[in-house]
Amino acid sequence: MQEKYIDETKQGEAFAIAEKPENSKKLFLESYGCQMNFSDSEIVASILNEQGYNTTMNLEEADLILLNTCSIRERAEQTVRMRLSQFKNLKKENPSLTVGVLGCMAERLKTKFLEEEHLVDLVVGPDAYRDLPNLLKETEDGRDAINVILSKEETYADINPVRLGGNGVTAFVTITRGCDNMCTFCVVPFTRGRERSRDPHSIIEECKALAENNYKEITLLGQNVDSYLWYGGGAKKDFDKASEMQKATAVNFAQLLEMVAKAVPGMRIRFSTSNPHEMTEEVFRVIAKYDNVCNYVHLPVQSGSDRILQKMNRQHTRQEYLDLIKKAKEIVPDIAFSQDMIAGFCGETEEDHQLTLDLMRQVEYDYGYMFAYSERPGTPAHKKMEDDVPADVKQRRLAEIIALQGELSRKRMQSYVGKTYEVLIEGISKKNKNQWKARTSQNAVVVFDIIEGQNIGDFVTVFVNDCTQGTLLGKTV
Ligand code: SAH
Ligand code: F3S
After folding, report:
1. What is the rounded distance in angstroms from the CA atom of residue 23 to the CA atom of residue 13?
2. Is the pTM value of this prediction over 0.90?
3. Predicted local distance difference test score (pLDDT) of residue 8
């Protein structure tokens, strides 16, 4: 399966890369939720690396345990609470152990976390990681410490992330933080604050440094990448107040994508997440123009019904979405799309649900990330709407959406059979040690027999001769 969201029911990956040999303290850092959290953890590791901490995968030897948490659905929060409860014994055995929570749950629950989870000593929101050294001093003195202040400026642009536990080939580069969209179901605008863009020069520098370190693929990250707008710093909402000069020299997402494509021509470039109402034709033209910009867009739609899209405060109609997909396919004929869908949002009828299934059939997505609606405290939907679709109906609709996506994925994978693709080798296949796992530009996973002389990080040409629902089977040509 694809790895955009790390399933919150699974334990987050622990990382282990020794950063500074002289460091003596040990940090156990575990991330949950979206790619942005994984990217943020690399910033956190970098900040703490300067404070004497190297990461460890071994809980028993940790001086500091940090969980980078997710609030997107209720289950994501339950998983973190369960994980925390597993640390009780460790804390008994080692009273000087510090346990901290970072990320969206820290921001959402604030001091409640310290009140409800007694073993937690440290609560730090997504914009406050620079304050970690000070906060840790407080915990060393035996006090609980908290900083959940959100910022309009913070982009951590100058912090060089420590690359954690990856494959050494693909990396995330954050380009925007926060979200101004206020989709009524979503907690992100409350936990990650105002949208702001990062200085393009620091983005290019980070991409070049990755290229120099033999990375081969970059994913530009943001809640809403198409909304990227650099005018010298500050919140996107304050763009109106910028000077004429700042406005004239502003950089938008299509321009940034082109700058990155040119700066690292030997690297593949992906981006996530796109929001349909901010996605422009210009972006598709950049995808078409540059071979190294991948022919794949994750374009969440959430529902195929105009009535529901409006209740969700998504800023486009079903037809506008379909027109955008049509235009994209004209500009980039072999483009692939994936979706996010929510089943059973407030007031969703059987007819609305059928419209979702119908839209999926029209678009023919390669993949999907599908969820039952989970009411989040404090969101506009929670305040103003009733979560009135019964749980069993939500689950049944979700199952239908997942089953249909399965059919569509199979169909899309079959359309790649009999063709030749350039693929990037990411590692060894989990199922067969004698095979590589690689990816096409369209983000499809291909497995094929290892041939001597091939290495992780190589681009190779592969003929696809068969497929399963989610994987292509091929051979080197
Ligand atoms: N910025 C992205 C989405 C971030 S959240 C965008 O533009 O869409 C990732 C996905 O989680 C969303 O696309 C949505 O499908 C899902 N999601 C968000 N809030 C949810 C909720 N309250 N219940 C169920 N799924 C939710
Ligand atoms: Fe959430 Fe909508 Fe932003 S889904 S992250 S409020 S684009």
Report:
1. 22
2. yes
3. 42
Q: Give me 242's structure tokens.
A: 């910028």
pLDDT at site 384: 98
In this predicted structure, what is the pLDDT of residue 438? 98
Tell me the pLDDT tens digit for each residue of 33-62: 999 999 999 999 999 999 999 999 999 999
SS3 of the chain: the string is: CCCCCECCCCCCCECCCCCCCCCCEEEEEEECECHHHHHHHHHHHHHHHCCCEEECCCHHHCCEEEEEECCCCHHHHHHHHHHHHCCHHHHHHCCCCEEEEEHHHHHHHCHHHHHHCCCCCEEECCCCHHHHHHHHHHHHCCCCEEECCCCCCCCCCCCCCCCCCCCCCEEEEECEECCCCCCCCCCHHHHHCCCEECCHHHHHHHHHHHHHCCCCEEEEECCCHHHCEECCCCEHHHHHHCCHHHHHCCEEHHHHHHHHHHHCCCCEEEEECCCCCCCCHHHHHHHHHCCCECCEEECCCECCCHHHHHHCCCCCCHHHHHHHHHHHHHHCCCCEEEEEEEECCCCCCHHHHHHHHHHHHHHCCCEEEEEECCCCCCCHHHHHCCCCCCHHHHHHHHHHHHHHHHHHHHHHHHHHCCCEEEEEEEEECCCCCCEEEEECCCCCEEEEECCCCCCCCCEEEEEEEEECCCEEEEEEC
Mutate to test the pocket of ligand 2, among 37, 72, 223 (most ligand atoms within 8 A of CB): 223
Pocket of ligand 1 (CB under 6 A): 72-73, 185-186, 188, 223-224, 273, 275, 300, 302, 340, 342, 371, 373-374, 376
Give the closest ligand to the alpha carbon of residue 345. Answer: 1
Cα(339)–Cα(364) distance, integer angstroms: 10
139 C-alpha vs ligand 2 centroid, how far in Å?
34
pLDDT value at position 4? 53
**Mutation test residue for ligand 2: of 71, 104, 224, the one with most atoms within 8 Å of CB:** 224
pLDDT 10s digits, 230-278: 999 989 999 999 999 999 999 999 999 999 999 999 999 999 999 999 9
Residue nearest to atom 19 of ligand 1 (CA): 186
Q: Give residues (CB < 6 A) around ligand 2.
A: 179, 181-183, 186, 188-189, 223-224, 275
- Cα–ligand 1 centroid distance for 249 (angstroms): 33
pLDDT in the model for residue 140: 93
Residues of the chain with pLDDT under 70: 1-18
pLDDT for res 19 = 75
CA 447 to centroid of ligand 1, rounded, Å: 30
